[in-house]
Write a structure and sequence with these properties.
The chain is α/β, with parallel strands linked by helices and about 400 residues long. The protein folds into 2 domains: about 5-175, Carbamate kinase (3-Layer(aba) Sandwich); about 255-400, 2-Layer Sandwich (VC0802-like). The protein is about 35% helix and about 25% strand. The chain has 11 helices and 20 strands. Strand 4 (about 100-105) and strand 5 form a beta hairpin. The protein is globular, with a radius of gyration of 23 Å. The protein binds adenosine-5'-diphosphate, aspartic acid and magnesium ion.
Length: about 400
C-alpha cells in the first residue's frame, strides 16, 4: 500500500471550518486505500503574532525560548486536525516534531534537519492510522525544541516523505501551482505544469516562497516527487521532478521578487588586504546570511562596500558594522530596509547573450533605478527600491514573453 504525504499550509487551516475541509480531503485519500501522513502548518498569521508577542517582551528574545514559543503554532493545528479526524471516526494521531523524531542541528530559528527516525510514524502508519505531524519543528541533540526557518513545514513534509519513501509529497497551499511569477503580484503569470528541482531551487532561492528552498534541496537529494496544488480546488497543480526532456526550455522561464532584503553600505573603506575579512567575519560568526556583495573602486586607496542581508538581521548587522567601521576607520555605515531584489531566471540563459542588457533597458524604461546587480549563468538579479518591486515583476514578465494568452 502506498504512502502519500500531504502538507497543508497556514491558509488551509485558518479556522475550524478550514480544518474540517482539510480533514475531508485527507479522508478521501485515505478511503481510496492510501496510507496518509499529514504535515500541518500553524494557522496563517499565528507565527507572526507569536513573534510580535515575544518582541513585546524584549527586542532580542532568547532564540531557544522563541523556538519553544513558535512551535506552539503547529502544535495547536496538529491537535485540532487529529481531533477533527477522530470525530469523523478515523484513526488519527498527532505527533510533535520530537515525537516524529525530526532531528535537527542546534541553530535555533533556522535549524537544519539532520535525519528523521521514522520508526514511530511508520509503526502508526502500518496500523492504518492517519498520522498528523506538526511541521516547522524538530529537536536538537540536547533535547531542545528547534524551528526550521520561515516556511519550514514544506521541509518537514519533504524530509518525512523521503524517510518514508512515500509515493508523493503533496504541498497544499493558497495558489493552485507554481507560476512564472508570483500570481498574487502578476495576474498574467502562467501556471507551470512541471518544473525541475534545479529550476525550482533557483526560484526559491530568489524569493518564490511557494516552497521553502531547503524542501526543494531535500526533494532533489532523495528524488521525492513533489506536487504543489491548491487546498481549495481539485485542479492539478505543478509537479517538481527530475529534469525531463519534455520541459519547456525558455531563455527566461520565470521572474521572482524578494522583499525580505536590506542593504548595508560601508563608505570609504581602506582598500587593503584583509579588510573584507574584517567586515564579513563577525557577520558570519553571528549567523547572519549575506546575499549580494558589491565593491566599488574609489580614488585614493578607498572603496565603498555594499551587501545585503535578510531584513530580520538588518539591525544586528548594522550594529556589528558600526563597530567594524570604527576599527577599520571607514568613513560611515549606511543602511536601507526599503529595497527589493527582482530576478529573471532560466537555465536557457546559459546559451544566450543580451538578457542582462534587456533587463536593464526594461527597468530604465519605467524609470526604475538599479541599486545593485548580480548575475550567474542562470539568473540576473537587481536590487531596486521596494516600492517598484511589483511593477518591475510585471514589466519584466511581459517583456520576456511570459504572459499567458488572454
Ligand atoms: P503556505 O502557507 O501554504 O505555505 P506560502 O504563503 O508560504 O503558503 O506560499 C504560497 C504563496 O507563494 C502564494 O500565495 C504566492 O503569493 C507565493 N508565490 C511567490 N512566488 C510564487 C510563484 N512563482 N508561484 C506560485 N506562488 C508564488
Ligand atoms: N508557521 C511557519 C511559518 O509561518 C512555518 C510554515 O508555515 O511553513 O513560517
Ligand atoms: Mg509556505
Amino acid at each position: 500500500m502506498g504512502i502519500i504525504v500531504q502538507k497543508y499550509g497556514g491558509t488551509s487551516v485558518v479556522d475550524i471550518d478550514h480544518i474540517r475541509n482539510v480533514a475531508k480531503r485527507i479522508t478521501k485519500t485515505y478511503d481510496q486505500g492510501n496510507n496518509v501522513v499529514v504535515i500541518i502548518s500553524a494557522m496563517a498569521g499565528v507565527t507572526d503574532e507569536l513573534i510580535d508577542m515575544a518582541m513585546q517582551v524584549t527586542d532580542s528574545p532568547e532564540k531557544r525560548e522563541l523556538d519553544v514559543l513558535l512551535a506552539t503554532g503547529e502544535q495547536t493545528t496538529a491537535a485540532l486536525l487529529a481531533m477533527t479526524l477522530k470525530a469523523m471516526n478515523y484513526p488519527a494521531m498527532s505527533l510533535l516534531g520530537y515525537q516524529a523524531e525530526v532531528h535537527t542541528d542546534c541553530a535555533f530559528g533556522n535549524a537544519r534537519i539532520l535525519d528523521i527516525g521514522a520508526g514511530r510514524i511508520k509503526d502508526l502508519v502500518d496500523e492504518r492510522n492517519i498520522v498528523v505531524v506538526a511541521g516547522f519543528q524538530g529537536i536538537d541533540e540536547n533535547g531542545n525544541i528547534t524551528t526550521l526557518g520561515r516556511g519550514g513545514s514544506d521541509t518537514t513534509a519533504v524530509a518525512i516523505a523521503a524517510s518514508l519513501k512515500a509515493d508523493i509529497c503533496e504541498i497544499y497551499t493558497d495558489v493552485d501551482g507554481i507560476y512564472t511569477a508570483d500570481p498574487n503580484v502578476c495576474k498574467k503569470a502562467r501556471k507551470i505544469v512541471a518544473i525541475s528541482y534545479d529550476e525550482m531551487l533557483n526560484m526559491a532561492s530568489l524569493g518564490a516562497k511557494v516552497l521553502q528552498i531547503r524542501s526543494v534541496g531535500f526533494a532533489k537529494k532523495y528524488n521525492v516527487p513533489v506536487h504543489v496544488r491548491s487546498a481549495f480546488t481539485e485542479e492539478e497543480g505543478t509537479m517538481v521532478v527530475n529534469e525531463d526532456s519534455g520541459m519547456e526550455r525558455l531563455v527566461v522561464s520565470a521572474v521572482t521578487h524578494d522583499k525580505n532584503q536590506a542593504r548595508i553600505t560601508l563608505k570609504k573603506v581602506p582598500d587593503q588586504p584583509g579588510v573584507a575579512a574584517k567586515i564579513f567575519t563577525p557577520i558570519a560568526e553571528s549567523g547572519i546570511v549575506v546575499d549580494m556583495i558589491v565593491q566599488n573602486t574609489r580614488a585614493e586607496g578607498h572603496t565603498d562596500l555594499t551587501f545585503t542581508v535578510p531584513k530580520v538581521s538588518f539591525e544586528a548587522a548594522l550594529e556589528i558594522e558600526g563597530r567594524v567601521a570604527e576599527e577599520i576607520e571607514a568613513e560611515d555605515v549606511l543602511g536601507d530596509k526599503n529595497i527589493a531584489k527582482v530576478s529573471v531566471v532560466g537555465v536557457g540563459m546559459k546559451d544566450h547573450s543580451g538578457v542582462a542588457a534587456k533587463m536593464f533597458n526594461i527597468l530604465a524604461r519605467e524609470n526604475i533605478n538599479i541599486i545593485m546587480i548580480s548575475t550567474s549563468e542562470i539568473r540576473i538579479s537587481c536590487i531596486i527600491e521596494e516600492k517598484y518591486a511589483e511593477l518591475a515583476v510585471r514589466v519584466l514578465h511581459t517583456a520576456f514573453g511570459l504572459d499567458k494568452e488572454e
